[in-house]
Design a protein that fits this description.
This protein is an alpha/beta fold and 333 residues long. It has 13 helices and nine strands. The N and C termini lie far apart (59 Å). The structure holds phosphoric acid mono(formamide)ester. Phosphoric acid mono(formamide)ester binds next to helix 3.
Length: 333
């Protein structure tokens, strides 16, 4: 059984699940649970972020994560600025760190960043003073996706220990698989990475033990949940991929899903390649928790933003006053 909650959340950044303790993960989930009634109901949420400003700095496309962070921040009363990489001065060779520092100088409390380079959120966190939340960096981590997966699992099973989750598909390119692996291990559950050999290669970055299998049919009877991953064609430079062969071995069909444990649920972070990794029948079927995951995402992001900005504000209250750069600014003597 994973250890419970620390008394107070102390991190101003959320960069990954690898660094968090089980207690911190559970604290985030318990906080998210309290926000859940405010995600879809027309019930006014506590205005914990009133007067705060959040920047959505997305350098890769997103539907769920950007929208979800936006709704989460706005429901808590924050103002959200949307940054669009394609129309920004990044196209004039301004660096990511200069971009982040410049927008922070306009007055920010948090930056939510998605970037195609591994470690981008950590680099930004070192460069700015405000909170930084990782919304996905290359195939490294996507911590709020992992957390929303855990919230959906807990709703179904009432616990997060002793579960087996088969994570199936394009593991090699998946930040979701990595965040789930770290989080599930800490919570006392088991992740099994399943896919063809070409998608199970390239996991040398992982410092924790990894269970792997190329045989989905053999693994399914052990699974409480089956998490299907999108085949990430945009990251496939030089990968020889045969869609028909992939479907024969790994597509989640209703017949295949029947091999999983009774009551097993189906997860998918989205976006879905319908008819490739998953059939319509399964994606839209009674065991699918896919849209429930999306709802959980808003609550998880409300929790992450409010806890991280809360820690930032405690830091700001106790920090030595910084030089004020404003109308009264004078150069140092
Ligand atoms: N799950 C997820 O990250 O989806 P988006 O790419 O649409 O944000």
């Amino acid at each position: 059984m994973a250890k419970r909650t620390p008394a107070q959340w102390t991190r101003k950044h959320l960069l990954g699940l690898e660094d968090l303790s089980a207690g911190e993960i559970l604290h985030l989930l318990d906080t998210a649970e309290k926000f859940l009634p405010y995600t879809t109901a027309r019930k006014a949420a506590p205005q914990k972020l009133k007067g705060r400003t959040v920047l959505n700095l997305f350098c890769e496309d997103s539907t769920r994560t950007r929208t979800s962070f936006t709704l989460a921040a706005e429901r808590l009363g924050a103002r959200v600025i949307q940054f669009h990489a394609a129309t920004s001065s990044l196209s004039k060779n301004e660096t990511l760190l200069d971009t982040a520092r410049n927008i922070e100088a306009m007055g920010l409390d948090a930056i939510v960043i998605r970037h195609q380079e591994r470690g981008a959120s950590e680099a930004v966190a070192k460069a700015v003073n405000c909170s930084v939340l990782n919304a996905g960096d290359d195939s490294h981590e996507h911590p709020t996706q992992g957390l929303l997966d855990f919230l959906a699992l807990r709703h179904k099973f009432g616990r997060l220990d002793g579960l087996t989750v088969g994570i199936v598909g394009d593991i090699r390119h998946s930040r979701v698989a990595r965040s789930n692996l770290h989080g599930l291990a800490k919570l006392g559950s088991r992740a099994i990475f399943v896919g063809p050999a070409l998608f199970l290669d390239g996991l040398d970055d992982l410092t924790v033990p990894v269970e792997k299998s190329t045989d989905l049919n053999a693994i399914l009877p052990e699974c409480d949940a089956v998490m299907m991953l999108r085949v990430q064609f945009e990251r496939h430079e030089g990968v020889a991929f045969d869609a028909e062969e992939y479907k024969r071995g790994y597509q989640l069909t209703a017949k295949r899903l029947a091999r999983a444990k009774k009551g097993a649920i189906v997860l998918h972070p989205g976006p879905i390649n319908r008819g490739l990794e998953i059939t319509d029948e399964v994606a839209d079927g009674p065991q699918s928790a896919i849209l429930h995951q999306v709802t959980c995402g808003v609550a998880v992001r409300m929790a992450a933003l409010s806890l991280c900005i809360g820690a930032l504000e405690r830091e700001r209250r106790t920090a030595r006053p910084r030089r004020r750069w404003g109308p009264d600014w004078k150069p140092a003597p």
